[in-house]
Hints:
Layout: E1 4-8, H1 13-24, E2 30-33, H2 38-48, E3 55-58, E4 61-64, H3 68-75
Parallel strand pairs: 1-2
Antiparallel strand pairs: 1-3, 3-4
Amino acid sequence: xxNITIYSTPTCIYCRMAKDFLTDKNIPxxxxxxxxxxxxxxxxxxxxxxxxxxxxxxxxxxxxxFDEEKLSKMxxx
Length: 77
């Protein structure tokens, strides 16, 4: 099983789309709400050099934004 983390905000439609995609496929993930967690916010900035959401991390591989095809490849599905 892959370790998946989504760094998101509650108002981001692409964050919702990414989480819905994983939920629909019954793929567990950790959701980090960047509006509530300053430490995670800093972590995302260090990893990506920017403050964009969603940031999706699959076993250490980082994707900025939501691209269903790319995420599927990262997940091996």
